[in-house]
Amino acid sequence: MKITAIFSISTFLLLGSLLVARGQQWTATPPFKEETDLSGDWRFRTDPQDKGEQEQWYKQTLPETVKLPGSMTTNQKGDDITVNTPWTGSIFDSSWFHDPAYSQYRIAGKVKVPFWLQPDKYYKGAAWYQRTIDIPANWDGRELELFLERCHWETKVWIDDTYAGMQNSLATPHVYTLTGKLAPGQHTLSIRVDNRVKDIDVGPNSHSISDHTQGNWNGLAGRLLLKAKNDVYISDVQLYPDIAAKNVTALITVRNNSGKPVAANVSLQAMAQTQGAETLQQVAASQQVDTSAVIKVVYPMGQHPLLWDEFHPNVYQMTVAVSAGKPPYDIRQVLFGMREFATKGTHFTINGRPTFLRGTLECAAFPKTGYPPTDTASWMRIFRICRSYGLNHLRFHSWCPPEAAFEAADRSGFYLHIECSSWANQGAVIGDGKPLDAYIYEESRKIVKAYGNHPSFCMLLYGNEPAGKHHVQYLTDFVKYWKQRDSRRLYSTGAGWPIISESDFNSTPAPRIQQWGEGLKSIINSQPPRTDYDWSAIISKWQHPTVSHEIGQWCVYPDFDEIKQYDGVLKAKNFEIFRDQLQKNGMGKLAHDFLLASGKLQVLCYKADIEAALRTPGFGGFQLLGLYDFPGQGTALVGVLNPFWRDKGYVTGPEYSSFCNAVVPLVRLPKMVYLSNEHLSADVEIAQFGPAVLTGATPSWQISNSEGQVLFKDDLPKKDIPFGNAINLGQINTSLSSITKPSRLTLTVEVAGYKNAWDIFVYPAYLPAADPHILVTQELDQQAQDVLNSGGKVLLSLKKGALKADKGGDIAIGFSSIFWNTAWTKQQPPVTLGILCDSTHPALREFPTQSFSNWQWQDAMSHAGAIKLDAVKKGLQPIVRVIDDWVTARSLGLLFECKVGKGSLLVSGIDLVTDRARRPEARQLLFSLQQYMHSKDFKPDAKVDLAQITALYQ
C-alpha cells in the first residue's frame, strides 16, 4: 500500500475548527458536505385498508399534517382506545375483558387498561408521511442519501413516482441511496411506515415493538436528513483498537461514483477528548478505487494511549478524510476508545483488570414520547443516575438504542449489552427456518456496522429468552459467526439461556434468590435470614464468566403521586385503576405509607440479591430487573426509580450504592437474629473491582444501637486488597451478653472509605414469666370463651393454615415482596408486600420493629396467614397490617384487638405457639404482646361478636 502525506497538520487544525458541538456529540459540517434537515411539517394520511400503494398515494397530496420527528401518537393521530384495540403484547391475565369489577373501565370513551401505560390514540397498520423537498442547483447529478434515524417499523420510500426501496431495521437508521440523479427543483418525498408484525415475527413482547414498554408506535424519530454525496466519499469506517500494540487498525470503505478509477487518498488523525493527552501524528495512505474499496491503515496511538473503562472514560475522535485529486473531499469523525473487554477464567476483564458487571435493564420505557430519545443529553442523564446507584452496566432487553445512547455510554464509562430486537418466545420462535432467522443476522450486522466503534458496546446477543426446537444450534452458529467476524466485544446466545461452551459468557437466571415459579420455596422465603450463602455450587460447572439474569424483580406499592408526571403520550391509567380500588376499600389515605413500607422491604430484598452475587468467588456480574419500574406485563413495579428515572422517596443513590458498587464490604452472617447469651461470629469479606489495588487498607467494624451509640468496634489487620471478590479481611467475634433489652443493632463495616451495613436483632436470652391470667390459645374453645365472658384477656394465636379461605386463608403470604407481579406470574406467592405498623404502638414495645418489614419479621411472615379484616368488622384497624397486592387492595391484618363480650381479645394471624422454643422472634413477639395485654394500654374499643372470630378459622 502506498503511503502518501495528503494533508498537513495545519489542514487538520483547520478541519478541527469546523467541528460543531451538538450537546456532548460532535459532528463535522465542512463546506463540501451538504445536507438538508427534513424536520418540521409533513403531510400525512393513514392507510388502514392498505390502499395507498395500489392507488399511488405518492402521486397525490396527502390531506393531513403532522410534525416530524415524531409519531402518530405524539401528533394525536390514530383511533380512540376501546376494548377491541389491537394491542401488541401478551396479556396473561385477561380478566379485565369480562370481570364485572372492571366494567367501569370498559365504557366507551372512558377505557382504562391495567396491562401497561396507555396512549390517548392507537394505530396499527400503514401510514403515509409526505413532504416537498428542494434540490439545489449545486446538487445536480450527485448521489443523494435519505437518512431516517429511528423508524418504527417498516419503511418504503418514493421520490415522486419512483420507488426507492424498503427497509425494516428496528435498531439502526434507515438509509436510502437515491439513484436516478434528481434534477434541481422541487420533488415529492413519500414514506410509508408500517408498524405491524408481518412475516418477520420478532415476538409480540419484544421491547423493540411491544406495548408493554415504549409502545408499538408508528412514525419517524430522530434526525431526518437528505444528504448530497460527492463522487468519492467514505461509506464506512471501522476501528479495531489493540491496546497491547498501542495502535488502531482502521478499515475505511471508500466509494467511487465518478465512473472511472481514481486514486483515493485517505488521511487519519486521532484526538483525545481529554485535556493534557498526548498529541498524535497524522497518518495517510493512497489506494486505487474502481467503484468501492476497503483501505486498511494501522494508526499508532503514541507511547501512552489513554485507556477507556468505567473509571476513566477516555474517548478519542478519529478524523478520516478522503480526496481524489482536488477537493471536494469527504470527512468522517468517529468516536472510539482504547479498550479490551475480555474474559479470564470466570471473570470479565477490562484492559486486563478484573471487573464485575453491576447492571440493570433498559426496557425502552419512555412515557413522554413513547419512543427512545436520540439526543445525547437525555442518555447522559440516565447513565449519571445509574452511576449514582453504583451501576456500571446496562442491558438493552430485546432492543438496541440509538447512536446517542452509545455516545453517552462512551463518555460515562458504561458497559453495554445489546440485543438484536427480538424476544422469540410466547408466540415466536428462532432457529426453525422462519424469516426471523435471517433477520437476526441482518440486524446484528447493521448494529455492529452502525455502532461497533463505540467502546461502550461490549456485549452482543441475539435477544431475550429464546424458544424454538432448534434454537440451541441456531444460536451456537450465531455465536461462532460473530466471534470469527469481530473481536471487539463478547458474544453469547440469548439473555437467560441457552448455555453453550462456544459462548464468551453465560447468561442464566440460576444464581438469584428467587426463581420464576419458586414461590415460597426460595431462599428468602423458606430459610431463616442470613448472609453466608453464595452461588459457587451453581457456577462451578462452567468455565466462562456467568452473569445472573434478571435478578430481583421485587415489587413496591404504586406511587399514586406519580400519575401527574405522565404528561406525555403515555398515561398511567393503570395507576388510576389501582388507586380507585384502594379508595373503594377504604384505605386511600394509606397509599403513601404502603409505598414507603413496601419500598423499604423492596430495598432489603435487592440488597440480599446483590450481595449474594458479590459474595460469590469468580462470579461475572448481575443484571437487575430492575433499577426502574417496568410499566407493562400487568404492571411490574420492580424499581426503586419510576419510569422517568426519578426516585420514590425511600432510598437514595448513595444509600443503594453502599451495597452495589465497585468496592463493597461484605459480611457472612450465619443468621440475623440472636439471643443475648450468644456470640456474633462472622467472616468479613470484600468485593474489590475498583480502579486500583487498595494498598495499606485497615478494615474496621462497629455495632451500634438504634440511637446511634457504638456498642462494639474493632479494626481488622491492615493489608493490601487486590482485585476480586470473596477476599477475606478477618473475622468479627463478639459476645452479645451486654445487650440487656430487645434491640435492633446495626453492624457497619468500613474499608478505604467504602461502608456497608446490616441490621441484626438481639433478644434477651431469658424472659420474665408472663401474666398467668392472660390465656394464650390457638382456638376459642370453651375455656377461652369462659375467660372472655368473665371479662378476662385472651390472645388467640392461629395456627398457620387454620384461616378459612374466604377469611384470608387463600392469600399466600411470605417474607419477600411480590416477585414481578401477580398477573404475569399467575399469583405466584407471596402476593403481598410486607407489613405496615406503628412502630411506637405499645403492643410492640418489647419487639424492636420499624414500621416496615425487616429481617425479624421473616419468621412471622413464614408462620402466618393474612386475616381479611373486613370479614371481621368493616373498617377494623389492625396493630400490624399486611400490605396487599395493589390489584386487589384488600384490608389485611396480622394482629388486631377487639372487645368480645365482656372480655378483651388480641388476635394474631401469626402462629406464636408452635415450635416457639426454636423461634426466638416468635418467643419475643409473644412476650411483647403479653406485656401489652398486661398493661393499662390494652383497651380495645372495637366490638366484635364471638361468632365473627370463630368463623375465621377451620
UniProtKB/TrEMBL annotation:
Gene Ontology cellular component list: beta-galactosidase complex
Keyword 4Fe-4S carried by entry: no
Residues of the Glycoside hydrolase family 2 immunoglobulin-like beta-sandwich domain: 232-339
Reaction catalyzed: Hydrolysis of terminal non-reducing beta-D-galactose residues in beta-D-galactosides
Cleavable signal peptide: 1-23
GO annotation (BP), single: lactose catabolic process
GO molecular function, one term: beta-galactosidase activity
Keyword entries, A-Z: Glycosidase, Hydrolase, Signal
Pfam families in the record: Glyco_hydro_2
Gene3D superfamilies attached to this UniProt entry: Galactose-binding domain-like, Glycosidases, Immunoglobulins
Family that this chain belongs to: Belongs to the glycosyl hydrolase 2 family.
Name of the protein in its database record: beta-galactosidase
